[in-house]
Specification:
By secondary structure, this protein is of the alpha/beta class. The chain has helices at about 25-35, 50-55, 70-75, 90-95, 120-130, 145-150, 160-165, 170-180, and strands at about 1-10, 15-20, 40-45, 60, 80-85, 100-105, 135-140, 155-160. The protein is built from eight helices and eight strands, in the order E-E-H-E-H-E-H-E-H-E-H-E-H-E-H-H. The radius of gyration is 15 Å and the shape is globular.
């Protein structure tokens, strides 16, 4: 299981449940438990609109192999925030046109989770962000060693997994990353 955390300069922290292989019934139960324990944080479910709705999550994040943003919007209406992954300006514009509330763009840096993907880099993500009118989160390979490259490119929203999940003190790691986003 991967719990992604997202931070926004001066904004609300987001927790995203991402599990690609857990049986869906178990995933629903886990999502319900997480929702109950995450008072005051935005909670998103990766990939599954039905799990997001049934667990009373705040939103769902959809990748390129999931249902379309437009289909998710038809099912969820305005009940869920809907995010989408976008690694090209065309995909970003398409997702926004279909009703995406935010985008995750990347990978910003090389990452074993998305080893097959072409690295966009901070400037590539910033170029996409300049062309659309919804928030953009930089994703992929982000940790304390490279956040400054993102903020130098004007990016102040990130989503991380390993930088927090693999840290000896995840809460401290989250606070440090958030402070780095706010430093500029």
């Amino acid at each position: 299981m991967e719990i992604a955390t997202a931070a926004v300069r001066g904004g609300v922290d987001v927790i995203q449940l991402r599990h690609k292989s857990m049986p869906r019934g178990e995933l629903l139960e886990l999502a319900k438990r997480l929702r109950a324990s995450l008072e005051g944080l935005l909670f998103l479910v990766n990939d599954f609109v039905d799990i997001a709705l049934l667990s009373e999550a705040d939103g769902v994040h959809l990748g390129p192999d999931d249902i379309s943003v437009a289909s998710a919007r038809r099912v969820a209406g305005d009940r869920l925030l809907i995010g989408a992954s976008a690694s090209t300006p065309e995909r970003a514009r398409e997702a926004v046109a279909q009703g995406a509330d935010y985008l995750g763009c990347g990978p910003a840096f090389a990452t074993p989770i998305k080893a097959e993907k072409r690295v966009l880099g901070p400037e590539g993500i910033a170029a996409i962000a300049r062309r659309i009118d919804v928030p953009v989160f930089a994703i992929g390979g982000i940790d304390a060693s490279n956040v400054a490259e993102l903020t130098a490119a004007g990016l102040h929203r990130i989503c991380v997994i390993r930088a927090v999940g693999d840290a000896p003190d995840p809460e401290k790691a989250t606070r440090e990353l958030r402070a780095m986003l706010s430093a500029t």
